Every structure is written in structure tokens, then in C-alpha cells.
């Protein structure tokens, strides 16, 4: 079964079409890149897939659940790291994770263990009792990542997961992303860090002005654009220089 | 430390999404300085200060009027003695040669009493005599001092009149052909009257404003900080999210309301003791079961209504600051009529029972002065519940609107 199926997904706001009849499929157990320039429709698409926004037209399924008619089921199987971390500044890292773990129905003992595991893994254990507002930007992003995977979701939506994070921590996050997919879980990764996308993702979609301009494997993209530099390919695609 | 304890408590919470939401909201609130100040500290600190500090400085027994006596009649001992024994006056002699008007203008004295020459002889001789009081009408202390002197002099004057009449074998009734006796229709004292004007306003103000900072932070603030998006993508129905925020706000409002009432009552008791004179007898506010129920009902319904309104504003606003600006306008529209109601004559209160928030002020006033009827109570609280339902519906509708939540 494919993890995500998107069919003619469209979103309009007050006459402006942010996402225009896009179609793509994400296989299970892969890291799927989702790229585009600013304002292309990436965040809107991720918001629709994570059921935060309702599509104007079209459908999508996440693990077989319809994002409109089966919203609650979709929400149970996903984790989300938006571009803004969305951590609660007046809660500690433990409390942030506890809150979301509880919302996802985790039991006390399991939750305590999982919190410890994640915070240690992401080098946040020593900061566990400090208010999240006092953490650095990079630490908050790691905390947001921990929050998104606290309940071991089968599907993860990551919007700039390593933005502002130091090299060592970014590496930790990438390692964890790779581990996630080794467990047959799926990650949709949106990032402006094309090196990261090229090294983590096997397939991707590129969106520009609300429309998908490429969807498929990175290997195929390199072949048709006759280049191995994703940045160069990306720029040429956006400029319409690659068919 | 207390909030750390509450944080730990989170692990013990049952699998109830509403409780989990409330836990987080309250934990966040207790660590938010704005909420602590607005909801808990302000009612305790500001009410006693605003109610009592000005009066403390104006209290005639604590700040007696500095009264100068220009005594041109050494025989007028009885008058000087009477003035000396008045606790609201501090009396001293003034040199007759000085400029007495200037002394009062320059605040050397609050007032000066000039006892003319032959004061005593004229009185003894059955004549009338003029006593001059030089005072400053722009000064409360001076005015209060003048009143004290006038009261003393009038008492002495009355006593002299009765003595003169007695010598002429004329009874007091000759100069008092009409006597007034007042009959009260209900047992309401000074305490109740004061309380009926102040208590409802404070209950209304703190019911609406007490948790406003928290509500705005919980709605517009979450939008601004982008924590709302992650919350919405969690498996919690939107009705549970908004119910959790609303109930947390209501709990805070209840605490604010109770602190407000307790603080107000304490301030009033202090105030009453500051204003007590030797003769006035003051009744303090009696807490009948009806009054306690009325207070609780007003605090609860006022808080629920106020929070529904502020929640609608908070959800609509893009940011905390924008929400505060809307709140300023709301205050004018809702609170000004409520404050006016506190001072309306009783005959005009009935129509105000239909206005939002103002109805709670009106019914509380009526309950305190014991004029509330069952129909009044039913109308006031019934209408308030209708408004509450409308405001909650608006808040929920706005919370479910993508356009509003993400202001696109």
C-alpha cells in the first residue's frame, strides 16, 4: 500500500489558488522530498495532508484514511514538525513531550521511557527541566522533532527539520530520520537544504506556483536534467529550462 | 516549585483529552506573569489601595483639620473647649494681627474660626452674634473641618436657644412646629448601600477582564507562536480543544472573582471604620444565603459570559496585541453600561436586566438591597445564559473557521 496518495488536491483562499490540482504518490518506508521556492504551496500542501487545512477540491489519503472524511484517523497516524517549531515556551521539554504523548494516548510508563530515550538521543536530557523558551533555536527544533515522533507515527511530515540546528544535532536528526524509515515508516521532508534532500530522499516532488512540476525519483530527475547537482536541477526546473 | 509539581502531575492524568488540555493550559497560565498579575495579584492589591488610600488621607479622624482660632473674646471659653474636644479638628490659637485669609490660602491652616469681641456678652444678652469661618472650598480637609465646626456651633446655638425659650416659658415645640420621623421600608444599612454600588461593578469588571490576558494568550497567542497548528493536527477534536481552553479560563475567572469579592469586602470594612464618627452608626454588609448565592451566580455567569466574549475576540485576532485592542472597544461597549447601571436610580433598573453583563450588575444590586424578586432573578440570569450561549457559539464557529484561525 502507498503511504500517501494525492489526487487533484487544490486549495484556494479568497480567489487565490495556492495549490492547483496536484497529484503525487508516496510509497511506504521512504523519505520523500517536497521542494519548491517560497510561496510555491509546500506549507499549504503539508497542512492539508496533516488535516490542519481542508482542501477546496480533490482528495488525499494517508495510510488509506481520507484526509477530509477520516481526519481523526489520519491524525492518529501522523507526526508533524511545522516550519515554526510550535513548542510551548512555558513548558519544559519533558512537559512538552508529556502533553503530546498523552494526547496520543500513551501510558505513563511507556511515555516516561520514551521521553527519556528521545531527550537523551537528541542531547536534551540535561535541559529537560528548563523552560523551553530558554532553549536555543536549534534545541527547540530538536524538541519539536522529538514531539513529532513521541508516539512512533507511521507517517511523519517534516518542514525544515534541521533549520537553525548545529551540525552535530542536524546529523543526529538525520540519523533518526533514517532509522524511522528502516522501521517501514514514511517521512515527507520539505527542506531548502538541497544537500540534505539529495542525501536523504529517494523520491521527491517539486512544486512551483501551486503546481507540481516534477514528481518521481531523484535518480530519474538527475538523468533527464543531465546533472547530479540538485540545486542546479532545481533552479533550471523552476525556470522551466528542463522539460 | 508548585508549577513543577503540577507539571509532574501530568503523568498521572487519566486518558481524558479534556483534562490533558486543561492541565496544560493551567500550567502555562501559572507560569505566565501577565495572567498571575491580572487574575490574582491585581484584585488583591488594587482594590484595597484604590478604595482606601484616598480615604485614608481624607479621613477626618486620621487627618484632622488644622483649625486656627482667632479669639477676640477671652470669655468664649465654652466654644473654644468644644472645638478643642472635637476629634476631627486640631485647634491652635492664631494671632489676630495676621492675615487670616492668606494663612488659609497658603495652607498654614485648613480653616480659621474668628470669634468676635463681645461674643459671650451678646449671647448672654439674648442677641445674635456672627462667627466667621475662613476656609478653602477646594480642599476636602478644609471643607470637612468647616462642617465639623458648623455642627458644633449649631449644637451650641440650639442649646442656647432652648435655654432662652425656657426663661421665657416657651416650649421647644414653638420653634419646631413640624417634626420629621422616618420609617424605613426595609432593613438596609450604609454597608449594604455602599456594597450595592461597588460590589457589582467589581464583580463585572473582574469577571470579564480577570482571565482576559490568559484567554488572549491561549488563543491569539497560540496563533502567533504557531503552536496551534500542531495542536490541531493532534487527535483531539476541535470542540475538546476549545472546551479545554474555555474551562481553564473559567476556573481562573472563578478564582479572580472570589479574590475580588473577598478583597472588596475587606476594603469596605476598613473603609467603614475609617468613616465612622462618634455618632454615626454603621451597618456592615450581612452575608445572607441569598446574597452569597447571588454573588456566586454572578461571578460564575459573568465569568462564563466574559470568557466566551474574550475567547471569540482572541480567536479572531491575529496576535495578542490585536486582541487587546479589540478588548478596549469591547470594554467600552459592555462595561460602560454595566458601570452606569451601578448608579442608576432603583426605578430604572428593571430594563437593564436584559443587557449583557449589565444585567448581572443590576440583579446583584437588587439582591444586596433586598429588592430582588423571583421574576427579576429569572430574567437577569436567564438572559445572561442566553447571551453566554450566543457568545460561545460565535467563539466555536470562529475556532472552526480556517480563514480566521490562519487569517488567510
Describe what you observe in this structure.
The complex is a heterodimer of chains A (243) and B (408). Helices cover 38% and strands 25% of the residues of chain A. Chain A is built from 9 helices and 10 strands. Chain A has a 6-stranded mixed sheet with strand order 6-7-8-3-9-10, sandwiched between helices. Chain A has a 4-stranded antiparallel sheet with strand order 2-1-4-5, with helices on one face. The radius of gyration of chain A is 18 Å and the shape is globular. In chain A, 51% of the residues are buried. The model of chain A has no long low-confidence stretch (mean pLDDT 91). Chain B is mainly alpha-helical. Chain B has 17 helices and 4 strands. The two termini of chain B are 41 Å apart. The interface between A and B is large, with 39 and 32 residues.
Quick structural gist:
The complex is a heterodimer of chains A (243) and B (408). Chain A has 243 residues and is an alpha/beta fold.
> Numbering strands along the chain, what is their spatial order in the largest sheet of chain B?
2-1-3-4
Task: Please tell me what the overall shape of chain B is.
Answer: elongated
Largest interface: A-B, 39 and 32 residues
Strand content of chain A: 25-35%
The H/E string of chain B reads: HHHEHEHEHEHHHHHHHHHHH
| Sequence stretches where pLDDT stays below 50 over 5 or more residues of chain A | none
**Quick one: overall form of chain A?**
globular
Mean pLDDT of chain B: 86
What share of residues are in beta strands of chain B?
5-15%
Percent of residues of chain B in helical segments?
55-70%
Number of helices of chain A: 9
Largest sheet of chain B: 4 strands, mixed
Average pLDDT number of chain A = 91
Structural class of chain B: mainly alpha
Termini Cα gap of chain B: 41 Å
Task: Please give the order of strands in the largest beta sheet of chain A.
Answer: 6-7-8-3-9-10
Radius of gyration of chain B: 30 Å
Amino acid at each position: 500500500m502507498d503511504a500517501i496518495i494525492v489526487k487533484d488536491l487544490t486549495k484556494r483562499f479568497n480567489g487565490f489558488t495556492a495549490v492547483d490540482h496536484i497529484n503525487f504518490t508516496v510509497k511506504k518506508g521512504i523519505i520523500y522530498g517536497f521542494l519548491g521556492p517560497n510561496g510555491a504551496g509546500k506549507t499549504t500542501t503539508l497542512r492539508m495532508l496533516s488535516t490542519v487545512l481542508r482542501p477546496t477540491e480533490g482528495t488525499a489519503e494517508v495510510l488509506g484514511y481520507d484526509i477530509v472524511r477520516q481526519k481523526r484517523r489520519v491524525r492518529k497516524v501522523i507526526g508533524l514538525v511545522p516550519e515554526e517549531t510550535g513548542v510551548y515556551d512555558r513548558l519544559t521539554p519533558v512537559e512538552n513531550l508529556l502533553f503530546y504523548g498523552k494526547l496520543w494516548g500513551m501510558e505513563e510508563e511507556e511515555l516516561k521511557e520514551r521521553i527519556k530515550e528521545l531527550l537523551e538521543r537528541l542531547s536534551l536530557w540535561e535541559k529537560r527541566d528548563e523552560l523551553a523558551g530558554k532553549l536555543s533555536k536549534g534545541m527547540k527544533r530538536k524538541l519539536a522533532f522529538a514531539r513529532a515522533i513521541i508516539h512512533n507515527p507511521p507517517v511523519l511530515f517534516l518542514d525544515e527539520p534541521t533549520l537553525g540546528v548545529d551540525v552535530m544535532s542536524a546529523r543526529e536528526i538525520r540519523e533518526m530520520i533514517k532509522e524511522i524509515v528502516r522501521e517501514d515508516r514514511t517521512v515527507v521532508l520539505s527542506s531548502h537544504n538541497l544537500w540534505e534532500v539529495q542525501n536523504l530522499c529517494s523520491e521527491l516532488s517539486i512544486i512551483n506556483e501551486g503546481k507540481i512540476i516534477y514528481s518521481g525519483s531523484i535518480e530519474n530527475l538527475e538523468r533527464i536534467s543531465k546533472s547530479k547537482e540538485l540545486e542546479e536541477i532545481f533552479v533550471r526546473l523552476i525556470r522551466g529550462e528542463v522539460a | 516549585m508548585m508549577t513543577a509539581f503540577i507539571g509532574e502531575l501530568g503523568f498521572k492524568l487519566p486518558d481524558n483529552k479534556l483534562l490533558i488540555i486543561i492541565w496544560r493550559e493551567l500550567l502555562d497560565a501559572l507560569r505566565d506573569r501577565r495572567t498571575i498579575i491580572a487574575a490574582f495579584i491585581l484584585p488583591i492589591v488594587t482594590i484595597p489601595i484604590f478604595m482606601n488610600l484616598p480615604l485614608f488621607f481624607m479621613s477626618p479622624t486620621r487627618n484632622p483639620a488644622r483649625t486656627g482660632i482667632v479669639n477676640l473674646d477671652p470669655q468664649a471659653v465654652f466654644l473654644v473647649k468644644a472645638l478643642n474636644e472635637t476629634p476631627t479638628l486640631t485647634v491652635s490659637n492664631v494671632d489676630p494681627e495676621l492675615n487670616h485669609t492668606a494663612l488659609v490660602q497658603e495652607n498654614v491652616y485648613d480653616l480659621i474660626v474668628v470669634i468676635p469681641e463681645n461674643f459671650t456678652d451678646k449671647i448672654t444678652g439674648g442677641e445674635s452674634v456672627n462667627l466667621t469661618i475662613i476656609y478653602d472650598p477646594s480642599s476636602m480637609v478644609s471643607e470637612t473641618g468647616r462642617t465639623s465646626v458648623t455642627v458644633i456651633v449649631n449644637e451650641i446655638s440650639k442649646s442656647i436657644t432652648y435655654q432662652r425659650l425656657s426663661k421665657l416659658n416657651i416650649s421647644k415645640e414653638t420653634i419646631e412646629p413640624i417634626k420629621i420621623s422616618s420609617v424605613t421600608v426595609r432593613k438596609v444599612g450604609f454597608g449594604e448601600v455602599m456594597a450595592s454600588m461597588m460590589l457589582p461593578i467589581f464583580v463585572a469588571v473582574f469577571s470579564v477582564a480577570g482571565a482576559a490576558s490568559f484567554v488572549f494568550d491561549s488563543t491569539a497567542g497560540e496563533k502567533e507562536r504557531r503552536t496551534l497548528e500542531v495542536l490541531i493536527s493532534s487527535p483531539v477534536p476541535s470542540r475538546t480543544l476549545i472546551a479545554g481552553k474555555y474551562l481553564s479560563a473559567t476556573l481562573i475567572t472563578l478564582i479572580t472573582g472570589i479574590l475580588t469579592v473577598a478583597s472588596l469586602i475587606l476594603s469596605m470594612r476598613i473603609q467603614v471604620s475609617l468613616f465612622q464618627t462618634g455618632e454615626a452608626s454603621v451597618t456592615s454588609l450581612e452575608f445572607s444565603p441569598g446574597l452569597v448565592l447571588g454573588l456566586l451566580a454572578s461571578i460564575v455567569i459573568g465569568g462564563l459570559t466574559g470568557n466566551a466574549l474574550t475567547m471569540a475576540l482572541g480567536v479572531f485576532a491575529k496576535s495578542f496585541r490585536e486582541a487587546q485592542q479589540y478588548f478596549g472597544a469591547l470594554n467600552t461597549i459592555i462595561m460602560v453600561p454595566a458601570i452606569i447601571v451601578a448608579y442608576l436610580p432603583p426605578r430604572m433598573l428593571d430594563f437593564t436586566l436584559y443587557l449583557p453583563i449589565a444585567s448581572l450588575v443590576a440583579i446583584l444590586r437588587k439582591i444586596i438591597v433586598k429588592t430582588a424578586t423571583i421574576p427579576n432573578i429569572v430574567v437577569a440570569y436567564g438572559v445572561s445564559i442566553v447571551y453566554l450561549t450566543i457568545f460561545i457559539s460565535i467563539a466555536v464557529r470562529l475556532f472552526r473557521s480556517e480563514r480566521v484561525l490562519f487569517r488567510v
